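Design a sequence for this backbone.
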């Protein structure tokens, strides 16, 4: 898990295995008023052999997406 501060907002990045969807993801969350909100993910779908991006909200700082991509490239192994 990696915490980042951007424009007064607190985000954290985490990787997660997903056995149901058969893959692994890098996820972007926000901590706001003590609650955690799931904002976006980059998902490596091992079944389809694809990499997919999903945003669950519209208001995301570009810097947070860049950090998510950096984490994905660093933490998630390449498709084989």
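Sequence:
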């Amino acid at each position: 898990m990696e915490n980042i501060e951007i424009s007064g907002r607190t985000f954290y990045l985490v990787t997660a295995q997903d056995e149901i969807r058969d893959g692994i993801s890098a996820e972007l969350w926000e901590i706001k008023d003590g609650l955690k909100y799931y904002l976006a993910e980059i998902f490596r779908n091992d079944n389809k052999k694809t990499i997919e991006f999903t945003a669950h909200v519209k208001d995301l700082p570009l810097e947070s997406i860049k950090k998510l991509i950096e984490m994905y490239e660093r933490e998630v192994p390449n498709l084989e």
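The longest strand covers residues 35-45.
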